[in-house]
Amino acid sequence: MNKPIAPMIIRGEVITDNLIEVGGRGGDLAFLTPDAHRYLDALPLGNPAKLADLYELSFDDILDFAVALGARLDLTTNAHLQQACELSYRTAPTTPSLVKSSYLGLRHMLTREAIVEAVDSTVGIKYLEGWVSQRLIDGTELEIRCFGSRALHIVAGNSPAVSLLTILRNMVLRSDAIIKAPSNDPFTALAIARTMVDMAPDHPLTRHLSVAYWKGGDEAFEERLYQPHNLEKIVAWGGFASMKHVSRYIQPGLELISLDPKRSASIIGADTFASESNVSEAATRLASDIGALNQKGCVNARVVYVQCGTDAAGLKQLDGFGRAVYEALQNLPNSLSTPAKRYDAGLKAHVDALRLDDEWYEVIGGKDGEGAVIVSKISEPVSFSTQLDDRTVNLVPVDSLDEVMDAVDAYTQTVGIYPEALKDELKNRLPLHGAQRIVSLGYAVAMKWAAPQDAIEPLRRMGKWISNQINTPHLTPGPWQRPPLA
């Protein structure tokens, strides 16, 4: 059987020579790709002055290109996307229906209105289009503009949308991007880049995008590429080990923008139990936050703190709520969530062990890889809470929300909250403990790129913010005009 080819794309050129065999994550697919070592000298842009052609484009020109690209990212007609989607069924951490749903959604990310909204609410379009002037109180005229950069993007492979978001961010900033395709999604960024080549091979936006696959941790390759004369920014998504590895290359002139591993949680307030309808709604919303992307995202709930109390009556309420959550998990649409592609054996062993400890835990489901709800009878998460995955959640009873604050730290990304009114009590407290995103329960996966991410604004960080300071001595006395000391 012929192995599929993942080409290398360097600024409009599709390369299929000097192929070597590599494997996707999990060992389900071997594919061929150009040996990145052979093209190392061609990957970097080199002289940053070569970004100048991007400044011949207006922001409207960039919008026109993005919208035209979106029209071509239709899975029903785009052969590159179709091939990438089929191959991703084997490499992705999620099941085929979730992969297909993600590919179907790509084209909807590139609407003019959504791009304008996101860019204007983060960077500010006026700062991308020209110098923005202001008069300071000492008479100084200060001009500020955001310029693009030469960037390497080490993208996550848990969702195809990450690759398109990376390409879109690069376009609006007028940057030059090298995308390192991940082993669990080596095809999405390539398919998008090939679509750009088909659409407009000589367009500056096409000519400032490169996509390549190389094995992470290849020090001989990375030590030559990850240098300030090649790159100004490294935007890295990934786990603890990969972040620690890439940080070794950071030096003056080369900045790391880290979108590093996070955990997310949910808080269910006492008022949830005021009515059966509240309980039902909260269970459905929580199931969505657990099950979306089959719990492969940082945004997914894993530990849920439920203010039901720890007395017998409270634990009975929690058990009933847990069963409602389990039932809702099973009824999620297959475009959002499914039983696991491959339920983690180590996790299953932990879960099965808790079944024997019914004094402290109640385990609902999980025998067939469909997901499980672990109901704790004490106010502490299970010892393996950081390993919860594949639609496996731990419900933890608490008497007071003060107990939850101790569990929130710098690794906490998203906190889903129900009922909505509870947010007013918590939204000024949670960030002080480390929480980075607060969201209505059920909407954890509905991230907005107009919002900050991981407590930073990646789009702003990816740009270079340049100032031009204009002074005249009659308005702002110069340093040389200071009176002498007595």
Chart the SSEs and their pairings:
Elements (H helix, E strand, L loop, with lengths): L7 E3 L2 E3 L3 E5 L6 E5 L24 H14 L6 H13 L4 H10 L6 H11 L2 H5 L2 E4 L5 E7 L2 E5 L6 H13 L2 E5 L7 H12 L4 H4 L1 E4 L6 H7 L7 E5 L2 H7 L8 E5 L3 E6 L7 H16 L9 E6 L5 H19 L14 H10 L6 E5 L6 E5 L15 E6 L4 H4 L6 E7 L3 H5 L3 H4 L3 E4 L17 H5 L1 E7 L16
Helix pairs in contact: 2-3, 2-7, 11-12
Based on the model shown, name its key terms.
486 residues; alpha/beta; Aldehyde Dehydrogenase, Chain A, domain 1; Aldehyde Dehydrogenase, Chain A, domain 2; 7-stranded mixed sheet; 17 helices; 33% helix; 20% strand; NADP; Long-chain-fatty-acyl-CoA reductase
Describe the protein:
The structure is a single chain. Strands 2-1-9-8-7-10-11 form a 7-stranded mixed β-sheet. A 7-stranded mixed β-sheet has the order 14-15-16-13-12-17-18, with helices on both faces. A 3-stranded antiparallel β-sheet has the order 5-6-19. It is α/β, with parallel strands linked by helices and 486 residues long. It folds into 2 domains: 8-260 and 454-469, Aldehyde Dehydrogenase, Chain A, domain 1; 263-440, Aldehyde Dehydrogenase, Chain A, domain 2, CATH 3.40.309.10. It contains 17 helices and 19 strands. It is globular, with a radius of gyration of 25 Å.
